[in-house]
Amino acid sequence: MPDLSRMARATVGALVAGAVLMACSPTFDWRTIMNNDNGYTVDLPAKPGNDERTIDVGGTQMKMRMQTAEAGHAVFAVGTVVLPGDDPQMQQAALDFLRTGLARNLGATPESHATQIPLVAGGQVPGIEMAFSGKAGPQHETRTLHARLVVHGRHVYQAAVVADHELPVEQLDQFFQSFKLY
User: Fold this and answer.
1) Average pLDDT rounded to a whole number, residues 13-25
2) To the nearest 10°, the Cα dihedral for 100, 162, 47, 173?
3) What pLDDT shows up at residue 2?
4) What is the mean pLDDT of residues 158-173?
5) From CA 161, how far away is CA 14, in angstroms rounded?
6) Cβ–Cβ contacts within 10 Å for residue 162, how many?
7) Domains (ranges, CATH) in the chain?
8) Tell me, what's the pLDDT at 34?
């Protein structure tokens, strides 16, 4: 499982580094982002950046694409993994990979529960909502993380917010309630 740990550390590390090194205004300048390539729409609090990494899920190499935006001492991110097929075992393995990686990197056991993720065309699909705090980064600073994980067809999504303090509910709601899948 060294690849799982490395990718998970890299994902949380990128989120933490962005939050720590952030030099932009703490104000939230919300804008709707339509990601047609990865099949979602979301409101982000600043102009997003893009990143891509190769991950190993159950021995299968695949790409994880991320869109991130920084504001208010927080990083808002949506990661997408496109699976080679819609096999339920591979879907579960990818969800487990993301969930385990987030928890491991903050050294905490997240509170998690089922949630519903809306579809742009109407309806919803089941997902997982997680929230926890822990130590991260080279200085082992406390971070809070809120995330939603969901599978939709061949896509596995991770919508997450990591911050150096608990954000106002309005900011979290703006992000998570706007996250919709095609």
Assistant:
1) 43
2) 100
3) 46
4) 95
5) 12
6) 26
7) 2-181 (3.40.1000.10)
8) 97
